[in-house]
Amino acid sequence: GGAVVDLEEFYRRYNAVCNEHRFDDLGEFVADRVEVNGEIQGLGGYADGLAAVVRAFPDYRWDLRHLLVDGDRIAAHFVDTGTHRGEFLGVPATGRAVTTQEFAIYRVAEGRIAEVWVTADNLRILDQLRADR
C-alpha cells in the first residue's frame, strides 16, 4: 500500500538537500543499506562520502541538468562545481574553481534510494587542480 512516490519530485528534494549540504537528513532519501557501484556502503558511508567532497570544496554544487525516471529507476546528469579549499585526491588546497560532469543511476525501493551506479569525471578535476596557470 501507500501512495505512489513521484520519483522526479523525490529526487529534486534529495538534490536540494545535497546542495544545502544537509547530509544528516539523507536518511529520508537513502536506505540504511544502500549499495553503491555494486558494494554495500550504507547510509553512514554514503553521507561521509558527500561530506568529504564538501570539506574539500565547501561551496560544492550538483547542478542537475537531466533527470529521467523509468519505473523504479532514476537517471541523472549533473554539472558539478566547487572551489578547492581542502585536500582532494591527494592534492592540497589550490583555491581554484573546478567544474566536471557526473552521471548516476538510482534504484528506489520502499521510498528510498537502495542502489546507485555513479561516475564523476575526477580526472577532469585533477587536471584543473594541477594545471599550470
Helix-strand blueprint:
Layout: H1 7-19, E1 30-36, E2 39-40, H2 42-56, E3 61-70, E4 73-83, E5 97-109, E6 112-120, H3 122-130
Parallel strand pairs: 1-6
Antiparallel strand pairs: 1-2, 3-4, 4-5, 5-6
Descriptive account of the structure:
The protein has 133 residues and is of the alpha+beta class. 28% of the residues lie in helices and 39% in strands. The chain is built from three helices and six strands, in the order αββαββββα. It has a six-stranded mixed sheet with strand order 2-1-6-5-4-3. A hairpin with a 2-residue loop joins strand 3 and strand 4. It is globular, with a radius of gyration of 15 Å. The mean pLDDT is 95.
- Supply the helix-strand structural class: alpha+beta
Low-confidence segments = none
Q: Which strand-content bin applies to the residues?
A: 35-45%
**Residue share in helix:** 25-40%
Alpha plus pi helix count: 3
SSE pattern, N- to C-terminal = HEEHEEEEH
Mind describing the biggest β-sheet?
A: 6 strands, mixed
Termini separation: 58 Å
The count of strands amounts to: 6
Strand order of the largest sheet: 2-1-6-5-4-3
Shape: globular
Q: What is the radius of gyration computed over CA atoms, rounded to a whole number of angstroms?
A: 15 Å
Features:
133 residues
Question: In short, what is this structure?
Answer:
With 133 residues, this protein is of the alpha+beta class. The chain is built from three helices and six strands.
